[in-house]
Specification:
By secondary structure, this protein is an alpha+beta fold. It is built from 4 helices and 12 strands; from the N terminus they run E-E-E-E-E-H-E-E-H-H-E-E-E-E-H-E. Strands 5-6-7-11-10-9-8 form a 7-stranded antiparallel sheet. A hairpin with a 2-residue loop joins strand 8 and strand 9.
Length: 248
């Protein structure tokens, strides 16, 4: 199974001013939206405007996640200090928003999740979504039930319940992507540690930094994306935004 946060190179509607009162976090939409279909509603396609879940028998990108034959030290990730950034609180998570990024959730995102007359509620695609002024760089968060990502009768309590860093890449990285980095990050929380999986990869001229964690049967996935041509200048900022994801 592979879950992809995709981003569109087309600019979104002009972002509205960031209003905390308007940032009610939505619940992610589901399945089978074509990666190359780009619309005004999904300006995040190609790595952040839509979540895709698809069955794949084998993911070739996993070759780059093979265990090394000898122990080696990973190069440190370039990360900025995000303490001065606006911190958005969503449903069970918090994330830092880069300066000048603005909320780009659309009205239908807030209306999703409501049901009338017993009809099944339409799930929300995004729990949070922010974009740079020109719309080319996007930070988004989606939330998925873990049993949609991996069939199990047990409630996942930690992302390791979805598999190892290598195994979980089948869920979070699309086939054909080029992986630049994959890390397991442990964060001290209260009396225990929470595990986060970090992946950085490129696909279709887009560069993506993705962080995922699990809590109480839900997977929280933050993705920061930009064109490859902009990653050299803004990659540290976008990577830092994704890594700032905190599961509450």
């Amino acid at each position: 199974m592979a879950l992809l946060l995709s981003l569109s190179s087309h600019p979104p509607n002009p972002p509205q001013n960031l209003k905390p009162s308007a940032l009610t976090p939505p619940i992610p939409a589901t399945v089978n939206k074509v990666i190359n279909t780009i619309s005004k509603r999904h300006f995040i396609l190609k790595t952040s405007s839509i979540c895709i879940i698809s069955l794949v028998p084998q993911n070739p990108v996993l070759e780059s996640l093979a265990e090394p034959s000898a122990p080696s030290k990973s190069a440190p990730l370039g990360i900025a200090n995000t303490k001065s950034w606006f911190q958005f609180y969503g449903d069970g998570f918090a994330i830092r928003v880069p300066p000048q990024f603005e909320d780009v959730m659309e009205p239908e995102d807030f209306n999703a999740g409501l049901s009338l007359y017993g009809d099944k509620a339409k799930p929300r695609t995004f729990a949070a979504r922010f974009a740079s002024p020109d719309g080319s760089e996007v930070l988004s968060v989606v939330i998925r039930p873990t049993n949609q990502l991996k069939i199990t009768f047990l409630e996942a309590k930690d992302i390791s319940d979805l598999g190892s860093l290598k195994e979980a890449a089948n869920i979070f990285i699309p086939g054909g992507a080029t992986i630049y980095s994959a890390r397991k990050i442990k964060i001290k929380e209260d009396e225990d540690f929470r595990t986060y999986y970090f992946y950085e990869f490129g696909r279709d001229e887009q560069h993506i930094a993705l962080v995922a964690a699990v809590n109480s049967g839900k997977a929280f996935i933050a993705g920061a994306t930009a064109p490859q041509s902009k990653w050299g200048d803004d990659g540290v900022k976008l990577r830092s935004a994704a890594i700032s994801l905190t599961v509450l």
